[in-house]
Amino acid sequence: MDRYWSRLTRKLDPYVPGEQPEDGSYIKLNTNENPYGPSPKVLEAVRQAVGENLKLYPDPTCDAFISAVAVRYGVKKEQVFAGNGSDEVLAFSFMAFFDPDRTIVFPEITYSFYPVYALLSGLAYETVPLDSGFDIRPELMRSSGGVVFANPNAPTGRALPLSAIRNILDGNPDAVVIVDEAYTDFGGESAVGLIDEYPNLLVVHTFSKSRALAGMRIGLAFGDSGLIRALERVKNSFNSYTLDRLAMTAGIAALEDEEYYRGVTRKIIETREWFTAELRKRDFSVPDSSTNFVFASHRHLRAEDLYLRLKENRILVRYFKKPLIDNHLRISIGTDEEMRTFIEVLDRILGGADIP
Ligand code: PMP
What we know:
This protein has 356 residues and is α/β, with parallel strands linked by helices. It folds into 2 domains: 2-37 and 261-350, Aspartate Aminotransferase, domain 1; 40-258, Aspartate Aminotransferase, domain 2 (3-Layer(aba) Sandwich). It contains 11 helices and 12 strands. The strands form 3 sheets. Strands 1-11-12-10-9 form a 5-stranded mixed β-sheet, with helices on one face. A 5-stranded mixed β-sheet has the order 2-8-7-6-5. Strands 3-4 form a two-stranded parallel ribbon. Strand 5, helix 6 and strand 6 form a beta-alpha-beta unit. Helix 4 (86-97) packs across helix 5 (113-120) and helix 4 packs across helix 7. The longest helix has 24 residues, at 258-281. The radius of gyration is 21 Å and the shape is globular. The structure holds 4'-deoxy-4'-aminopyridoxal-5'-phosphate (PMP).
């Protein structure tokens, strides 16, 4: 521990992101990136945007991007906030809506950044159990301090229907409910359409997954204009320029090529269904996923061993050494070729394994 660290820094328990080797020699199925590149039109727009203008600060209000988002999602500009990745949007949201003396609630298995933000903001939290099928139990998601969950959830891949989201919103009229929809495009029902009805609903989106722009760091929040104003207050007390010029350009171009992204998303869903069936044939338990990853546990082989054996074979998946999920792997859906290679390597590992 460093004697110069603040008390806050000493208390933190930082999130550990998935390994990010830059040498390209791995099949990377560990951070839920999109295996297909961004739309060619996005790449062209970014190339065009590289120039003298980069000496100027970007528009701190992200007006052009937010206007494009509002049109695409059929909401008002005042109902949209943009940030540097949805991680930043989430961190701002914890600061904007929650107080240290009111306990917030999230599921016991969910995105592991939530407890990290809670510590950073000095917030108390409680977790509530999932059901035996790894589904969030809406009736338990109650707190006057605030409620946060991912839908579809991570790393389980399980989605709640809108009726359950309504149950959670109706049960928490005095607290902000944050629904993190990072993976919704792969099969979830989005709650963006509910923001006019529920002034306590904040829906968070990212361009990192279905829009294949993880490297650009683009996140969004949708909500009542009162909630968006709160996020702007926090942002302007932290860093006025959340989105850089290239990110805004890429974001606008991505919104203009929905056809490309629909095709890529459909492909990932098809690959996921094929891959899930292949895993089940090989003694894996795999809940149906509504995301671009699957959450898999083998009947005999320990997840940690499998993670290591896959890594030796230059396939990276995500293994969380945490209670309740330490015998599962989270495997992102890659291209068909990558997933076929995965199955071939898996068959070699299983063939050679000492299965009782
Ligand atoms: N929410 C969930 C549930 C995620 O899995 C991720 C990706 N790690 C994020 C938010 C953050 O995504 P980004 O910061 O790339 O927008």
